[in-house]
Amino acid sequence: MATDVYSESNDEPIHVEGGDHLEAIVDDHDIVLVDFYADWCGPCKMLEPVLEELARETEGVIAKVDVDEHQQLAGTYGVRGVPTLVLFADGEQVEQHTGALPADRLRDLIEGYTE
C-alpha cells in the first residue's frame, strides 16, 4: 500500500482550530468525517476510540470540532446536539448524522464514498 503525502495526518483525528482550518482539511482530502463533539458529552467519549480506529483503518480523514470552543462553526453546520457527524466527499457535504453511530456504520459511510 502506497503512502500518500497526508499519511501522518490520516493516522489520527485532526483537531480543528477554526473555520479556515476545517475548510483547508476538506479541500486537501477526498473524504473527511467531521465529529462535532463536547468534552462533557458521554456519547462523544464513547465515540472517540471508534473514530481513532477509523482514522487508522480507512482512507477517510477524521476531523474533530469542539463545539464549546467553536460555537460559531458548529452553528454554521446546524449542529443542535452532540455528537454530530458531518461527512464531506470531494469538498462537498454529503451526510450529516446526530448521535453516536456504530463503527461498522461509520466505516460503511466512509467507504461508500471512497470507491
Descriptive overview:
It is built from five helices and five strands; from the N terminus they run H-E-H-E-H-E-H-E-E-H. By secondary structure, it is an alpha/beta fold. The chain has one domain (7-112): Glutaredoxin (3-Layer(aba) Sandwich). Strand 2 (31-37), helix 3 (42-57) and strand 3 (61-66) form a beta-alpha-beta unit. The two termini are 16 Å apart.
Quick summary of this structure?
It contains five helices and five strands. Helix content is 40%, strand content 24%.
The coarse silhouette is globular
Query: How many domain modules?
Result: 1
Distance separating the two termini: 16 Å
Output the CATH topology.
Glutaredoxin
Radius of gyration, rounded?
13 Å
The CATH class name reads: Alpha Beta
In what range is the share of β-strand residues?
15-25%
**CATH architect. name:** 3-Layer(aba) Sandwich
Structural class: alpha/beta
Total helix count? 5
Average predicted confidence as pLDDT: 91
Low-confidence blocks of residues: 1-8
The tally of beta strands, per DSSP, is: 5
Helical amount:
40-55%
User: How is the largest sheet built, in terms of strand order?
Assistant: 1-3-2-4-5
SSE string, helices as H and strands as E: HEHEHEHEEH
CATH homologous superfamily designation? Glutaredoxin
Q: For the report, how would you describe the main beta sheet?
A: 5 strands, mixed
